[in-house]
Give the backbone structure.
Amino acid sequence: MHAHSGGTRLRAAITILLVAISSESILSRQGRERQAIDAAALFDRACSACHGGGDPRAPSVDALAGRSPQAILDALTSGSMRYQGLALSGDERRALAEFLTGRTLRGTVAGTTMGLCGTRTAMGDVAAMPMWNGWGASLENTHFQKSAQAGLTAGDVPTLHLLWAFGFPDTTSAWAQPTVAGGRLFVGSQNGTVYSLDAASGCIVWTFAARGGVRASISIGPRGGTGRQRTYAAYFADQKGFVYALDAAAGRLLWTRKVEEHPLVRLTGAPALVGDRLLVPISSYEEGGRPPGSSCCTFRGSLVALDARTGDVIWKSYTIAEPPHLLRAYADGTELRGPAGAAIWSAPTVDLARGAVYVGTGNTYSGAAQPTADAIIAFDLKTGRLRWSHSMAPTTPDVFGCVPGDVNCGDRPGPDFDFGASPVLATLSSGRQVIVAGQKSGVVFALDPDRQGRQVWRYRAGGGSGLGGIQWGIAVDGERAYVPVAEIYDPAPGGLHAIDLAHGARVWLAPPADPLPCGRPSRACSGALFSAVTAIPGVVFSPSNDGVLRAHSTTDGSVVWQFDTNREFPTLNGVRAKGGSMSGPAPVVAGGRLYVSSGYGAFGLRSGNVLLALAP
């Protein structure tokens, strides 16, 4: 007994030593990266044009020095400088905050001072273990998890409780949806750190620093080998236009490729891995995030196919065929160019049987309203050729990024009726397939993939607005589509709709729940449903803007369980973390656990930075 006790203490001491060495190695690497950043030169290059006196609205350097470093970080992640902050890495934002204030932030950019796994176990066989891979759990983007993969039944749901919490440092939004594969959980973060966690315990296996924030989901695919010798790669994109492939087991970089050179590029949609091809959707923040006084607009949305082995470009197809050209020059030196826009904000949907890939596009930015904007587009999977496009643009031209004087704007900009949610290739119980797409107009469409996207039915779920309608995603099973609605400006916002897939008729409507009070303006506490939803047999999980995750019965929409994330959580990695508004990522269910991110600090909503794991 004493020998066993001594051996236990020895093993514990060795484990502590290994964790300390691993932590020191990570921190030393981060320290070297931080030292390589010349904060003064970075400020001069990225900030001085405005904060050096060039813009009277911008606080001076002396004024910024009086703020806390955390306030500077918050401004660059969710405040007035959030678009400028997208062009910086987490290390760069942290270096600027410390340079301007003369004070040091606590912790590290990755938050890995504690919570590291004691020993690195081998990654399991992805094909043989429960999995949620990429954005939609399947290439069809159904956001439906079958029973065998879920490991969670409708009867289990009322007993769900918190297992562990993980905090994202230097962030105000937990905007990334996790991927579960091979016993690991992979997730990006707003400051650009990508984490591989043990899916059961939440401890950190490895971290990787991308060049920009990582919002898109991560896809895991085989690299080579067989059986226990099989290796895997993790593929993802960041907010600066770079795509990465990492060794999924160790986090080692395999290749990286910049897929779009536009200075205001943004990669929000998750790449889709199809065999040896990686399909990357391209968007930008030119319509709402360009600096004051700058010209508009030169960005066109596109879909890029990369060789998953090398990162080489196979094809790149634009959503607007005509390149932008000069439309008007102004006395202040700015220009109006177009046509521009039709960004792809969400993950592409793959139709292997038809050899097609479907994407949803956003509005036109400038120039004449484009027929491929606010549309569902089908590209040829092999060549990238545009097969067909079906626009659901409103009667009023949706030229949302236009500037005063643009004759295409009319009296005001368009309504901003993007397709921000991925289209879904739904297979009915009869075997028939339809493409189901929800729009920010508040309308859900079903299209026929065999008839050039001809409309099968349409269903109005909400009135629609730039922050209304269907924002990030729906879920479907063999009978119904489950559609969350935002409508944040409505006195009674939100609501979850169940729609019959065959006919487009309402099956039930779960009205928005009374939101929990949060001591903030009503928009920050409303029951609007921005986030994508996830379904398992018998239950659909819907995160809310009021910070509550609710589980609804698929039979009648009644709430069978809910979990309030509006509080601080003790975290495994020691990062101070809390929940808040929930916007973007859907809950992920795999292997008997439910994972959900909470917190969204943009657009006046409530910030947060936590990833939660729950189980029966």
